[in-house]
Structures
1.
Amino acid sequence: MLSLKNIGKRFGEHQILDGLSVEIPLTGITFIVGASGSGTSGLCRLAVGLLKPDAGEVSLFGERVDLMPERKLIEMRARAPYLVQGPALLDWLTLRENVALADPPSKSDGRADKALERLGLTEFSARKPPEVGPGIRKRAAIARALVLEPEVLLLDEPTTGLDKEAAGQVNDALALVREQGLGVALVSHDYAALRKLADRVVQVKDKKVGFNGSALDFLTAPH
Ligand SMILES: Nc1ncnc2c1ncn2[C@@H]1O[C@H](COP(=O)(O)OP(=O)(O)OP(=O)(O)O)[C@@H](O)[C@H]1O
Ligand SMILES: [Mg+2]
């Protein structure tokens, strides 16, 4: 469960969130939607303690993120990794080496290979990012997060800027990790994907949460 209570956040003169409260059960796939600049990335960053609220409380897995010391935040982010928008891989390493970056040598026990396999990437593991398409690159970034053995994945616009085929590869990966029991929350503007994949929708609107409920209710709401 991700819980935000009465959140206020401003940058300089610009109040981006004001009195935002929401409880999001992190099972299945949750789409976080909102107009550009509405604060959707901010919500993700608040959830994992990359951003501190000016007011209110943030709890993840029942623990106060906004009060957490950095050492504990690192542990928290292994349970709920946040994949930022844009490129995430090092071009001069193979996909396997990129994924293994998340695997601490002290613990290394083939978790990188397992993560690649979970996402159907074994055949690409010796290739470097420029040698595969953007959909495979994003899948590898997701595989790297899986190495941490998380409970939940947070993704910021994982398909923005991708062509239809690449976006399809990413969306298939999200469906796959849901089947494997992970919760997924993603910021997205892709309504076709929302229709196909979303279990729940959270809409950020007017500095608050405008909607929080099932995807079916969201899609059939009159407005
Ligand atoms: N570090 C910062 N300093 C100043 N302003 C910021 C900062 N981070 C975000 N903002 C502003 O706060 C508002 C909300 O930002 P946020 O990144 O959460 O929006 P978003 O919903 O993710 O939008 P987008 O669709 O563009 O990704 C935007 O107007 C943005 O310009
Ligand atoms: Mg954003």
Note: The chain has a mean pLDDT of 94.
2.
Amino acid sequence: MARLSGYLSRRGGLHPEEASALRQATSRLFNGQNKAETCRWVNAQGYRTTLGNEWTPEVLVRVLSHPRMAGLDDEGNPVEDFGPTVLTPDEYFRLQALFVEQKSQQPQAREAFDYLLTHGGAECGKCKYDMVGTRVSGDADPSYRCPPPRAGQASCGRVRMNADRLEDTVAEAVLAELMRPGAQEHLARLLADMRAEAKRLEEHIAGAVRRFEELRGMRDALVPAAYAAAEKATKDDLRESRNRLRFLEQMIDLPIDGVASLVEWWNSAPRASQRALVRLEIAKVRVLAAGRGKLRDPRERVLIDWRRPPA
Ligand SMILES: [Zn+2]
């Protein structure tokens, strides 16, 4: 049987180009592209399956549904010392949920929509409460809304905005902001810091083998509970380091030399990276009420608090 795409062998070891293609394909699926469109894009980029064939929707789903995509065994538990993975477990499970939803032919999955600006990213312009992601009904478009008032929460519940309109407006503004004089230099400095952090993390992760060896060397000197705690801490640290590195890797390849490439990056970036870029630039988005349902330019309804004053 052929090796699994994205990995150098059946035991793991990331294949950087294939892993990148699979991650971008995943981002496109999360962003609402269908499987056929996603395959066309993957094939147009020159990527092929491990057998050298063009990607088809069926093969793409089969590969992306393999638990090893996220370093998991067939029961969904992490494989010991598997190393870097194509997807995070969170991405993997969300993707499986998306496949299941698509199979049941719901036009867009409730769980599948990953809001860009919830968890403090957007607030109601009327009452200042954080907006939440919601749908009016199961098959309605995702939207942001001010949460309805309840005991201990004096939110107004009166402001709502379609998620596409809000997020597209914010994305446009962020990309435009990055075209301003000085903005890219600022971002370049942030990215340089991130690259330095990524390098430190890589070295730290590479040192994990030695740390585990040292720990095993101390096994007889420690009571079992202390040994177990130390081993767990070392494993947790390794997992967190890998997650952080994975996140940084999605950011540090950000091309900042021209609108076209930045837009291209945005369109296929993982949601987590889009969110990271937005949060780098924006402290908060305030959403104003529609005003008696008048159809208005969404930009008039969205006030952006930039992290630094516009140049
Ligand atoms: Zn409100």
Note: The longest helix spans residues 224-252.
